[in-house]
């Protein structure tokens, strides 16, 4: 029933102005609208709603990720804008925070938005 329906993504934040600045200015996403509850963005044809929730507490796992063609270039570009990439003990990431799956060669890097939501970049092998 929903296989052909277009998804809508939600990222929650207790500080909408700070999150909006990060998603717009740092990540370079294009705003498509706003209402009293959220700011909307276009993610390659899918809508992201950055939604204000007063008592939101971020979880420890990835809530949103992007498939990129060149993860090193994407990491460098975001790092130049002040983004810090997470290093997880035992993952065997490189100095920039990029983990390479030993089986497939897929590469992943994780970072946090101002709220503490875990975001990721993935480059398929």
What does this structure look like?
This protein is α/β, with parallel strands linked by helices. The protein has a single domain (8-123), classed as Roll (2,3-Dihydroxybiphenyl 1,2-Dioxygenase, domain 1), CATH 3.10.180.10. Helix content is 17%, strand content 37%. It has 2 helices and 8 strands. The chain has helices at residues 16-26, 71-80; strands at 8-13, 30-35, 38-43, 46-52, 62-67, 98-100, 107-112, 118-123. The strands form 2 sheets. The protein has a 4-stranded mixed beta sheet, covered by helices on one side. Strands 5-8-7-6 form a 4-stranded mixed beta sheet. Strand 3 and strand 4 (46-52) form a beta hairpin. The radius of gyration is 15 Å and the shape is globular. The mean pLDDT is 96.
Give a quick summary of the entry:
The protein has one domain: 2,3-Dihydroxybiphenyl 1,2-Dioxygenase, domain 1.
Briefly note the structural class of the backbone: alpha/beta
CATH topology: 2,3-Dihydroxybiphenyl 1,2-Dioxygenase, domain 1
Return the string of H and E elements: EHEEEEHEEE
Number of helices: 2
Question: In which range does the helix fraction lie?
Answer: 10-25%
Q: Strand portion, in percent?
A: 35-45%
| Count of extended strands | 8
Largest sheet: 4 strands, mixed
Q: How far do the termini sit from each other?
A: 31 Å
Name the average pLDDT: 96
Counting structural domains, the number is 1
Radius of gyration: 15 Å
CATH superfamily: 2,3-Dihydroxybiphenyl 1,2-Dioxygenase, domain 1
Give the overall silhouette: globular
Strand neighbour order, sheet with most strands: 1-4-3-2
């Amino acid at each position: 029933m929903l296989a052909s329906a277009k998804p809508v993504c939600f990222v929650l934040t207790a500080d909408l102005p700070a999150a909006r600045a990060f998603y717009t200015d740092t990540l370079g996403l294009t705003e498509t609208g706003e209402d009293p509850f959220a700011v909307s963005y276009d993610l390659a044809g899918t809508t992201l709603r950055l939604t204000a929730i007063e008592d939101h507490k971020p979880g420890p796992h990835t809530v949103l990720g992007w498939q990129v063609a060149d993860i090193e270039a994407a990491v460098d570009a975001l790092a130049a804008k002040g983004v810090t990439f997470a290093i997880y003990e035992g993952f065997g990431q490189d100095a920039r925070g990029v983990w390479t799956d030993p089986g497939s060669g897929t590469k992943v890097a994780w970072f946090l938005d101002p709220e503490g939501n875990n975001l990721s970049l993935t480059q398929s092998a």
